[in-house]
Amino acid sequence: xxxxxxxxxxxxxxxxxxxxxxxxxxxxxxxxxxxxxxxxxxxxxxxxxxxxxxxxxxxxxxxxxxxxxxxxxxxxxxxxxxxxxxxxxxxxxxxxxxxxxxxxxxxxxxxxxxxxxxxxxxxxxxxxxxxxxxxxxxxxxxxxxxxxxxxxxxxxxxxxxxxxxxxxxxxxxxxxxxxxxxxxxxxxxxxxxxxxxxxxxxxxxxxxxxxxxxxxxxxxxxxxxxxxxxxxxxxxxxxxxxxxxxxxxxxxxxxxxxxxxxxxxxxxxxxxxxxxxxxxxxxxxxxxxxxxxxxxxxxxxxxxxxxxxxxxxxxxxxxxxxxxxxxxxxxxxxxxxxxxxxxxxxxxxxxxxxxxxxxxxxxxxxxxxxxxxxxxxxxxxxxxxxxxxxxxxxxxxxxxxxxxxxxxxxxxxxxxxxxxxxxxxxxxxxxxxxxxxxxxxxxxxxxxxxxxxxxxxxxxxxxxxxxxxxxxxxxxxxx
Length: 479
Hints:
Elements: H1 3-10, H2 28-32, E1 44-45, H3 48-53, E2 68-70, H4 75-85, E3 92-95, E4 111-114, E5 121-124, E6 128-132, H5 137-145, E7 149-150, H6 162-168, H7 175-178, E8 185-192, E9 197-201, H8 206-212, E10 220-228, E11 230-231, E12 235-243, H9 246-259, E13 264-271, E14 277-287, H10 295-298, E15 310-315, H11 316-320, H12 323-332, E16 343-348, H13 352-361, E17 373-380, E18 396-403, H14 411-430, E19 434-435, H15 445-452, H16 456-466
Parallel strand pairs: 2-4, 3-4
Antiparallel strand pairs: 1-2, 5-6, 6-10, 7-11, 8-9, 8-10, 12-14, 12-15, 13-14, 13-17, 16-18, 16-19, 17-18
Helix pairs in contact: 1-12, 8-16
């Protein structure tokens, strides 16, 4: 098997992100608001290069140049900016590591808050860590592993910022056991749209706590988070199993999920290079170095093509960083910087196989590109408790994501994929599915009202209280 193909098959199966706005320079109305009164002039850059660097995101589908970029040294800097913006109608968007897909972390003609400098990692205790919102999950993991601990849920791609994933949920391979990353947040420090620095948790300002976690940045900018930790496993035994068709994959995925065979469970539908698909289950068992799991017992009764199975044994850190090798491959081929028109959704467990199968019947491998994939795997919803995380109301739901990685920088092709994303989203929503809100297609305020459903009044009230002038995260177009 070619080395590129092996790396593709072994790469992480899901990536979480958050997103961008529209192209253009300063409008006449934007110029009318003088920047001379902008506070913290030493930390706010009006430099053309700085503004251009925050005018796009990882998705490279939407562009919108801000009029200034704040690089805060503290929450007080952000609070000062928000007090300045209040009453002037200047929109503000927080940007972590720039890995959003569709313009939701951009602020055309507004101010972008570049959180990357706020990346300190504070106290580490046996059950928790305090970390700045601009820190990456990779840096956080390195710090906690040095003490023998880990966050319960890691995204497959660890170069995302802590604050960025808290804004959307933060899903990972261990989510069936531990929910979203937002389910493992103990407390947050936040700057509201009113320019106030506020601490919140389940016991203190709980309405803000619930409005921030998976609230798409609508109620405040996270500056610091206290996150739950657990003892880190020493090693990971990873099983990659391949199947002849989607029904066989889905049946075995649900079996191992209900039996709790794996500490991590994911899966994918991969282009096979000849216009068809290959079906993969990806499971992992944690273990100590001296007690390797019994492979036969782990795989007993499964209907995979056993001769094609790939079993690997890695340290926990090696396994967590595996996606980095895939990133390096895409960078070496120039594809990391191509448009990334992804679609991320959850299907009802009761109809997931049928819905996914019907969609697959209308797609070819070109729909995701030679290194793209469709992630497909089940989750137990009982582990999810964040109020604004939306899932179908069933015990089991399926992740169904089109991770599109086009082979070329073809703007017209990317635009067609974005249009197809919207069509597929409407189709999925009509049969009870929901989106994971980082995908590449436009959403109207009415769309967001429908998306949040029973959670909408809660978010609307939190927005009214903490960002009444609707200054924050304009790229989502929620309000």
